[in-house]
UniProtKB/TrEMBL annotation:
<dbReference type="GO" id="GO:0003723">
    <property type="term" value="F:RNA binding"/>
</dbReference>
<dbReference type="GO" id="GO:0160136">
    <property type="term" value="F:16S rRNA pseudouridine(516) synthase activity"/>
</dbReference>
<dbReference type="InterPro" id="IPR002942">
    <property type="entry name" value="S4_RNA-bd"/>
</dbReference>
<comment type="function">
    <text>Responsible for synthesis of pseudouridine from uracil-516 in 16S ribosomal RNA.</text>
</comment>
<dbReference type="InterPro" id="IPR042092">
    <property type="entry name" value="PsdUridine_s_RsuA/RluB/E/F_cat"/>
</dbReference>
<comment type="similarity">
    <text>Belongs to the pseudouridine synthase RsuA family.</text>
</comment>
<keyword id="KW-0413">Isomerase</keyword>
<dbReference type="InterPro" id="IPR020103">
    <property type="entry name" value="PsdUridine_synth_cat_dom_sf"/>
</dbReference>
<protein>
    <recommendedName>
        <fullName>Pseudouridine synthase</fullName>
        <ecNumber>5.4.99.-</ecNumber>
    </recommendedName>
</protein>
<dbReference type="Pfam" id="PF01479">
    <property type="entry name" value="S4"/>
</dbReference>
<feature type="domain" description="RNA-binding S4">
    <location>
        <begin position="3"/>
        <end position="37"/>
    </location>
</feature>
<dbReference type="Pfam" id="PF00849">
    <property type="entry name" value="PseudoU_synth_2"/>
</dbReference>
<dbReference type="InterPro" id="IPR000748">
    <property type="entry name" value="PsdUridine_synth_RsuA/RluB/E/F"/>
</dbReference>
<dbReference type="InterPro" id="IPR020094">
    <property type="entry name" value="TruA/RsuA/RluB/E/F_N"/>
</dbReference>
<dbReference type="GO" id="GO:0000455">
    <property type="term" value="P:enzyme-directed rRNA pseudouridine synthesis"/>
</dbReference>
<dbReference type="InterPro" id="IPR050343">
    <property type="entry name" value="RsuA_PseudoU_synthase"/>
</dbReference>
<dbReference type="InterPro" id="IPR006145">
    <property type="entry name" value="PsdUridine_synth_RsuA/RluA"/>
</dbReference>
Amino acid sequence: MNLESILFTQGFGSRRQCRALIGDARVSVDGTVCTEADTDFAVADGTLRFSVDGVEWPYREHAYLLLNKPAGYECSRDPQHHPSVFSLLPPQFAERGVQCVGRLDQDTTGLLLLSDDGKFVHQFTSPKRKVPKLYVATTRHPLDDAQLAALRDGVLLHGESKPSAALDAQARDTHTLALSVLEGKYHQVKRMIAAAGNRCEALHRERVGGFVLPATLAPGAWQWLDDNELDALRGG
Ligand code: URA
């Protein structure tokens, strides 16, 4: 693939802008400055690394990203009341079409996946492909056995005709609930907790499929997902 196409596919602007970056000697490949936009590089093995203005990036056919979402950010690219989670990411990701894989509320924290691979996004958001998600909620009132049983057996959410049941609901302490759900309806977890007779004061997503948010990833920080992590996501 030629260098212009490499930069273009990785989100570094229009083809014209990518040619200009290269012509201005701002791009290097494997440590060597390249000013010829038509120079070809092998990208198939995914090992190509290039730098733009001294910042190194790997070439990736698709971007699979993990963000430890802080509170106070909206998952929309066109946010209404709070900054977008995209303001926490390098701009080339939005440019290359990366989108959130499902949404978290602005005040929900934790594991947020993003990708520009439409199949992957569909796989994790389609209601048919049920992927378990583990949330940890802080509740206003003490948890009791009746609430936990109601969450496991199914609670009727306002405006729904069928009850929603948690895969599992466990109290970690008096006011901390670990709730595992398959679906991703609007405000699902908060509504389930309310329907069980309590109230959600804070919500954090800890796990999707078999993948747990790494403790080393600080709130607001992002990382690429590697093949092992993608496999863990698909496992339950
Ligand atoms: N359920 C909610 O209520 N909010 C979220 O952000 C995610 C799941």
